[in-house]
Amino acid sequence: MAPVQPTSMTMAASSGHGTGALRDIVRRSATLLILVALVLAIVLLAQLGDIVMQRRVIYGLVNLVAVVGLYIFMGNSGVLNFSNVAFMAIGAYTSALLTMPPMMKNTFLPDLPVWLAAAQVPSLAGAFAAGAVAGLVALVVGWPIMRLSGIGAAIATMSLLIICYIVLGNWNSLTGGQQSLMGLPAYVGLWTSGIWAMVAIFIAYVYQETRWAIALRASREDEVAARASGVRIVRQRLVAFVLSAVVSGIAGALYGHFLGTLRVETFYLDPTFLFISMLVVGGMRSLTGAVVGTIGISLLTEILRLLEVGVALPGTDMTLSTAPGLGDVALAAVMLLIILFRPQGITGGREIGSFIQARRKRT
Predict the structure, then answer these.
(1) Residues 119-123: contacts with CB within 8 Å, 24+ apart?
(2) Is residue 17 classed as helix, strand or coil in its secondary structure?
(3) 60 belongs to a structural domain
(4) What is the Cα–Cα distance from 241 to 134, expressed in whole angstroms?
(5) Residues sharing a CB contact under 8 Å with residue 133, sequence separation 6 or more, in sequence order
(6) Do the domain assignments include residue 10?
(7) Which run of H or of E encompasses 290?
(8) What would the mean pLDDT of 112-141 be, rounded to a whole number?
């Protein structure tokens, strides 16, 4: 029997199926592509500014990595998490101890073990090690914590932050205690922070599209129904918690190598509440919300800072300024208004890809 030749109708159907599959891939990836393009645009525009502006942008991009790390667990599970900054501290000190020149270690940390005092790895290896150590610690402490829910889980993560702060602040031989640890290679620039921000967005997006994240979000909406459907909530939360810690550890390494110096006080309550505010204001339940919240709060903070310093009005001798501390009050007021009138955040907990798709359907 002669082989059956494909007809034009069959080929058209096959072509149509392939085109439909391609469109589906593009539609589902729209959020990732737009967010990555947004970060790329920020980096390119920042290159046109002065060094002060560039450092502000770098700081904002490092914060973006931290907030995306926070979103991976808190956004998908719905569990309030205060331990994000603790893993940043672990990552920062891990990278510092591995990348600092041995001479600087002998000066600031004379009691280090011999093998650690002599070790010096490349900056990229230090960042990976920071994420790995933070993830390992999260795996160990996360198993009992992930069995808790609601306020109990929130208190447990806050306790973890406090414990980490006390341990690092008193481990003089390893971290220098309350003293500043200097001599870190300051390699974090615009492109380094921008690329890591894009990598963090990619990791968060790929994770939220997996069946593990979908199961975790099901438990976020209705824990009882999720358990009845066979979702292993503790395991799914632990996976997200560890991945969140890995990204946060890398963010801590970036922060340390951006400043070139470390203090334990840097990783405590102030950044903790700042990152949670960024995530909640943007929209805790979406990756787009994490990015929008970070960019929005960073811009608002910078504008208020400039007003406190004083901005000269073009074409006049007048200077527009505000009283010291008023910027913090205004920032708190803006966050309060958003939480009161838009509880789901600026994005309403939706991804930017869904906004585009809904607009196309209306047109």
Answers:
(1) 123/95, 123/99, 123/185, 123/187, 123/257
(2) helix
(3) yes
(4) 11
(5) 90, 91, 94, 249
(6) no
(7) helix 287-309
(8) 94
In a domain, 8, yes or no: no
Binned at pLDDT 50, 70 and 90, residue 339 comes out as confident
CA atoms within 13 A on the CB side of 34: 17
Lowest mean pLDDT among 26-30, 92-96, 210-214, 312-316: 312-316
| H-state helical runs in 100-232 | 102-108, 114-118, 123-145, 150-170, 172-175, 190-208, 211-221, 223-228
What 3-state class would DSSP assign to 138? Answer: helix
Give mean pLDDT, residues 253-271: 94
Token pair belonging to 352: 């930017």
How far apart CA 133 and CA 95 sit, in angstroms, is: 10
Looking at the structure of the chain, the number of domains it has is: 1
Q: Is residue 320 part of a domain?
A: no
Judged on CB neighbours under 10 Å (0-12, 13-18, 19+), 325 is exposed
The average confidence (pLDDT) of the chain is: 87
Say yes or no to pLDDT of 2 above 70: no
pLDDT band at 323 (very low <50, low <70, confident <90, very high): low
Closest CA to 81 of 247, 276, 232: 276
Q: Which pairs with CB-CB distance under 8 Å and at least 24 residues apart come from 100-105?
A: 100/183, 100/184, 100/185, 101/183, 104/182, 104/183, 105/183
Tally of CB atoms within 10 A around 223: 15
- Domain around 158: 32-267
Place 22 in a pLDDT band, splitting at 50, 70 and 90.
low
Mean pLDDT of 92-104: 94
Element (H, E) at 14: helix 8-46
